[in-house]
Amino acid sequence: MGLATHLGYRMHPMSAVAELDQLLRSLEPVRHPGSYVFASLHHGQSIDSSQIVACIREREGMSVVVHSDVARQQGLAPLFVCAWITLNVHSDLQAVGLTAAFSSALGAAGIACNVVAGGFHDHVFVPLQQADAAMDVLRCLQRQALVGGHENPLAETMTVSMLATSDAARYRALMLEAYAQAPDAFTSTPQERAAVPESWWIRRIADPNGMSVVFGAFQGQDLVGAVALEFSDKPKTRHKAHLIGMYVQPVARGTGAARELVVAAMAYLAGRPDIAVVVLTVTEGNTAATRLYRAAGFEVFGTEPMAILTPDGFKAKVHMWCRIGAAPGSLRLDADPGRTATHAP
């Protein structure tokens, strides 16, 4: 059985689709097994064309996309290690808006993508460690189109509330996913947090000394998003809160969950006369998160270079603050509330 047949491609003649809503409704993302790499061929170097997924000739040389095993066998240095996702809809090469729709959705989730258009399908290459999250985003995009419009159908039944100790297991699972899916956003790793005892998670949710609280976004009984507030017991910093650990699962993005989590946190702080200011950090380049927090009244006051070391190298952290009482009563409607923010720790 050929790869195309195995992946469910329609092998009979198809009419290309050009209308955006129909393209989105028929997206049908499929991930190819294994990992792939972008690599550049050295001058005079050749490779069997049957081993090449995609290629383009540039002034500097030939760039190719091949399976990771092929790259190792050929001694090719990987420029980008990725997962290969095919959008199974037969897209017209002159269609307008499809690439912008899915690349914007992926970008809002903090997922980089490189797109190659074939004669029948669009092919999306995303960072290998974010492959599952990318599939969730693309499936969500298709579901939104199927129900009509671009609003996530989960929005109508989304609720936000403060977490209790009984939510500890669900909160732990959600955050371990966050650390794995958004390594650039958090200062902690999945391995670090997986090793801490259950008491650590319970203390973050309901610290007996009142040093932290967590708000969760629920879809039914499922915890799909969370944000935490941490406080200080030091006399000189008791007036300050830290907003940390923001994460919303890809399936729940587009529901306004990130916005409602921030609203809940800020409303809680407004009822704390001992808290005068709240601060947070965002990884530089996370424009969706920055936009969300600006809408809540936060302002940037500095950028810390080389703040964290990620698989892609050093990243800077943007520091933001908001004076309690100076924040707007609600987030502006133009704040792109349907996208999630993710940040440390």
CATH superfamily of the largest domain: Gcn5-related N-acetyltransferase (GNAT)
Number of helices: 10
Query: Nearest-angstrom radius of gyration?
Result: 22 Å
Oligomeric composition of the shown chains: single chain
What is the element string, with H for helices and E for strands? HHEEEEHEHEEHEHHHEEEHEHEE
Cα separation of the termini: 47 Å
Tell me the overall shape: elongated
Number of strands: 14
Low-confidence stretches: 1-14, 327-341
CATH topology of the largest domain: Aminopeptidase
Whole-number total of structural domains: 2
Helix content: 25-40%
What percentage of the residues does DSSP assign to strands (E)? 25-35%
Q: What is the element layout, followed by pairings?
A:
Blueprint: H1 3-6, H2 20-25, E1 29-31, E2 36-40, E3 52-58, E4 61-67, H3 68-74, E5 80-87, H4 98-108, E6 114-117, E7 122-127, H5 131-147, E8 158-162, H6 168-181, H7 190-194, H8 198-205, E9 212-219, E10 222-231, E11 240-248, H9 257-270, E12 277-283, H10 287-295, E13 299-310, E14 313-323
Parallel strand pairs: 11-12
Antiparallel strand pairs: 1-5, 2-4, 2-5, 3-4, 5-7, 6-7, 8-9, 9-10, 10-11, 12-14, 13-14
